[in-house]
Amino acid sequence: MIMMMNTDEEESTRGLADLCFQSTLGNPFFVIEFMSMLHREDLIQFNIGTMKWSFDVSMIEGATFSTANVAELLKSRMEQMPADVKLLLQVVACLGPTFRVSVLETLWKNLAYTQSKGFGLDDIPKLISFIESEMLIETWVGGDRYRWVHDKVQEAALSLVQVDEAALKFNLGRILYYHLRGKEQEDSLFDTTHPTRVRRKLVPARKYPGKNKRANTAR
Q1: Hey, which end of the chain has fewer CB within 10 Å, N or C?
Q2: What is the pLDDT of residues 121-177, one digit of tens each?
């Protein structure tokens, strides 16, 4: 891919290829993310006059030194996104490798944080469309379920969580358990139990008496 960039400097092109391999280990998805990041940051530019790409390997090396892997590059890109997009990324990351739009809507309308910030259900389609256009998620098994394009994308989204990750996952699982009913709950069984199982490993069930006892039986 890099050797096809039509440059006259074989040495510098090879230097860029080496930097790319160090950060991506040749993984196609990571290579695309790494090169896209360089283009967004104007570290590689296409000269229409010469019809060739231009870049400075030393500048690229300096700019990417602190972000040695693609997960960090992804996190850095996510951190620059709007607040509602970042929140949605964190929520769906807690649901596992895939998520249903209907499950996300249940969480979105019952999370205290979304209510306090005025984030409504009408925002979800455009938010999903945005992160899909950013090539972070893709449609999977019909139009109601999506999946991460790579597990490193989910990992980067989880790293945005600033509160106790296990507590957040448990809270999301509890919301789903108490708000989904009948077939809807059966269809979303994995979405319901995936966030809660991490919390059960960390906190004994007796810490959640009374009403929460019902949630602890969903194993």
Answers
A1: C
A2: 889 999 999 999 988 999 987 667 899 988 888 988 998 987 777 788 888 888 888
Quick check: 107 and 92 in contact, CB under 8 A? no
How far apart CA 160 and CA 93 sit, in angstroms, is 10
